[in-house]
Prior knowledge:
By secondary structure, the chain is mostly beta strands.
Amino acid sequence: MGHAQRADRSVPLGGVAAGLSLNGNYTLSRCIGLDWANTGGNAGGFTNPDDPEYDRGHCPQDRTHIVNATLGYQTPEVANAALNALVANWRVSGILNVRSGSWLTVTTGQNSFNGLGGTAGLRVNQISDDVYGAKTLTSYLNRAAFEQPAQGTFGNYVLNSIRGPGFWKADLALSRLFSFGTTQNLEVRMEAFNLLNNFNWGNPTTNFSSGNFGRIQSQAGDSRIMQFGVKYGF
Length: 234
């Protein structure tokens, strides 16, 4: 059975003042274990049954830093009646999410054991500590830091030992409830997901045999999405 060693440190933050509320949470985490279920052949199992420790590395879900923050604010009333009708009682809420990148495994993309099993998770030899390229979309990993292992051998690359790109986005919602009489109301709402339209990189190609090795060809999460809504209650 695989097992993991995990350490988490979570720090909550929060406060409320004059219609403004702010809450946040920061987590520092480290998870190391034997990823039995996600290594070896398609049916799972250790890559090298004679050496289970060969599959020890960062857990796939491990994120070193995670930050979540929420903001809430309601605009105050003002003395001028006309101005008050326009600017008062708007509710603003926001969410910020930031996290470290996931851990990557560089695989050979080849069967060096002549079909004798263990082909899905075979790993390369790491021959340099300079594993990153320029950390651009076209050169995130340094191909020269790796090589194919000799036929019939397991590469020395440590499972899940390179970190992929981080992620962050901010979401925002703006709404107001207009009341008419005692039973009717109209809610106007605008929501923006990934408000600043940050382009979060996906993970680079980690198949060493691929011509796109080290390149990032995907996006993590969505580009900016905005939606508007009106709800009438009676």
